[in-house]
Specification:
Elements (H helix, E strand, L loop, with lengths): L6 H4 L8 H15 L8 H17 L2 H18 L28 H8 L114 E7 L1 H6 L1 E6 L5 E6 L8 E4 L9 E7 L6 E3 L2 E8 L1 H6 L1 E5 L6 E5 L8 E4 L14 E7 L7 H24 L1
Parallel strand pairs: 1-5, 7-11
Antiparallel strand pairs: 2-3, 4-5, 6-7, 8-9, 10-11
Helix pairs in contact: 2-3
Length: 396
């Protein structure tokens, strides 16, 4: 079979895969080969088209069943002797008598017919189930002929340029017709030059058409209604505070850029018009990820800063990180561990335009190891304070 594509191998799934497994496999591969993620890579673009075609067929139970029957039919035809009585795969029903796919010598023609890209009837006298009731027009470069109705299995006489006035038989044989389903009609007429379908090319002569004949077929699909979609936008605290351009990757494989305003918080939504499904709206739900240093509570920012015992006793000016950069905070002598200090208007923006405060909790850290010089100094301090600290206890 020419151009045959094994959709199961393309999506890397087995033939018993369920609908959810097919969807997951397509999404995983679509993200890998999506053209937006591989700009300028023609191979990735063709791979993505093949993946989309495979998913469109296998995700539809009816199309998948017809594809499986087509694969089995040609596999049996190409086997030695064309054995029709053997089923190579247990549990799969053999094609019925009316599922004769011999009118599709090329796999691409079968796929076009299956996906509704245009009615196809590639061999004269053989009627495709998907093209029942369709009308085909063949227009050769020849003298005009009168329109002749076509019955199943009948042949259209060749137009003869030597005798363009040859009349039809006066007593033609009666033609059998199906009163419920009209048969395809072929109209032969002169057409200088022949009509060309927009975007279509003449089929090759091997498919039953003659040189100079053009098949015109149009398929009109109703437009799908627009639907809204939702997605999650995760950003760190610093970018949620400052805002800016963010890239969002959607479940369908698309990747878009959005301009996010500053001061966003978890739970807020952004609406993007026309970025949903079939022209609907896209709603982005903002999620601010946890920060290792800050804790956001309302519009106030909380943080913990470590200081040494000497800084706690003597007081000092220390650098404290903020969302706007480090600032100097002055510690008063005798500050206690766990004490909270406030940096006004250094917190998170409020909807009214004001800003919250940054609350700094001081933690006095006792060193686990000290140098010999530090030990000498600490022992001197201890000698000075020992009597003052413990004498009241002894007297009591």
């Amino acid at each position: 079979m020419e151009n045959f594509r094994n959709y199961y191998d393309i999506l890397n799934i087995n033939r018993q895969a369920k609908g959810d497994e097919i969807k997951q496999a397509f999404r995983r591969l679509a993200r890998q080969y999506h053209p937006d993620l591989n700009p300028g890579d023609q191979g990735a673009e063709e791979k993505f088209k093949t993946l989309s075609e495979a998913y469109e067929v296998l995700s539809d139970p009816n199309k998948r069943a017809k594809y499986d029957q087509f694969s089995l039919f040609w596999k049996r035809q190409e086997s030695p002797g064309g054995d029709r009585g053997r089923n190579p795969r247990p549990g799969v029903r053999q094609p019925e008598a009316d599922n004769d796919f011999s009118q599709f010598p090329d796999f691409n023609i079968f796929v076009d017919d299956l996906l509704g890209r245009g009615p196809v009837n590639p061999r004269p006298g053989v009627r495709s189930p998907a093209a029942a009731g369709a009308e085909l027009r063949s227009e050769p470069r020849s003298a005009p002929r009168r329109t002749m109705p076509r019955t199943e299995g009948s042949r259209i006489p060749e137009p003869r340029t030597q005798n363009p006035r040859t009349p039809e038989p006066q007593n033609p044989e009666p033609r059998t017709q199906n009163p419920r389903t009209p048969e395809p009609r072929t109209e032969v007429r002169s057409a200088p030059p022949p009509l060309v379908n927009r975007g279509a090319s003449p089929p090759p002569p091997a498919l039953g058409y003659k040189t100079g004949m053009v098949k015109t077929a149009y398929t009109i699909r109703p437009a799908a209604p627009p639907r809204d979609a939702e997605a999650k936008l995760e950003v760190p605290l610093e970018r949620a505070y400052s805002g800016g351009r963010e890239r969002v990757r959607l479940e369908d494989g698309r990747s878009i850029e959005v301009d996010m305003p500053g001061g966003m918080v978890t739970g807020q939504q952004m609406r993007l018009r026309g970025q949903g499904i079939e022209g609907g709206n896209l709603y982005l739900r903002v999620v601010v990820t946890p920060h290792p240093f800050y804790r956001l509570q309302g519009s106030d920012l909380f943080c913990v800063v470590s200081i040494s015992p000497v800084e706690a006793i003597l007081g000092a000016a220390i650098a404290v990180p903020t969302l706007d950069g480090p600032v100097q905070m002055k510690l008063q002598p005798g500050v206690r561990s766990g004490q909270r200090l406030r940096l006004a208007a250094k917190g998170y923006p409020q909807p009214q335009g004001r800003r919250g405060d940054q609350i700094v909790e001081v933690q006095v850290v006792i060193p686990k190891t000290i140098s010999p010089e530090e030990r000498v100094l600490y022992e001197e301090i201890y000698g000075l304070e020992r009597d003052r600290l413990h004498k009241p206890l002894l007297l009591g």
